[in-house]
Amino acid sequence: MLTIQNVSKRFGAHQANNDISFSASHGRITGLLGPNGAGKTTMIRMITSIIMPDAGTLTLDGQPVTSLSQNSIGYLPEERGLYKKLTVKEQIVYFAQLKGLSERDALQRATKWLHRMDAADWMPKKIQELSKGMQQKVQFICTVIHDPSLVILDEPFSGLDPVNADLMISVVKELKAAGTTILLSTHQMDQVEKLCDDIVLIDRGTVLLTGSVSEVRGRFRKNRLHVRFEGASSSFDSLEGATVTAASEGRAEIILADADVHSVLRQLMDR
Fold first, then answer.
1. Buried b (16+ CB within 10 A) or exposed e, 36-54
2. What is the pTM of this model?
3. Tell me: the pLDDT tens digits for 23-42?
């Protein structure tokens, strides 16, 4: 769906992106990960044609990414991008019309999405009256109101309490199930594990690794087993094929050597 090939971008002496290549597949969620300053935001801004690459190609569904591609893209930036004195209704309808929807269609979709996001009563409220989390939900609706084929989410759970974060996760999964390609940039690794099919890890403008979440887990596994228990820690003495590095206060860490997980668990259960 989205293909990045040998893309580079420099700002003066700073190399923000250096020969980056990866892809985001149709109907899958790809996590774009890395520390602050890694080059993630620069990459997103090139995908959304806010800035242009110095080298390399970006294609969306086989076609070069241009300003004309943007009606197929929904972008939720990390920063708030809402007009504070507009009402929620005016805000959503305005952004939908920028993406080519009629006012009537925009209003119908806005009503539907506000109900889905548990925000049906917000329509007449001004943006400045809303909390940070409520604004985030409105901005998310503005991102997906035009049914984009590619959705880019930059820290989408910022400012959300656990209940609304779970709601957002459910909606993102629904978009995926409907065939939407999603690029998710976040620092919250638990959300990555809950949501992402694939990951791209960037640091200092360079791709360090790509692959499915399960592949990456397998590649970097440390063969450590963490066990919770009740009773004496002596049950963990002299395990065959494994080394116990710690066993106290109801928790134990075991490094697997020749034994597999099932073998160690059988030994513990016998004790």
1. eebbbbbbbbbbbeeeebe
2. 0.80
3. 999 999 999 998 888 899 99
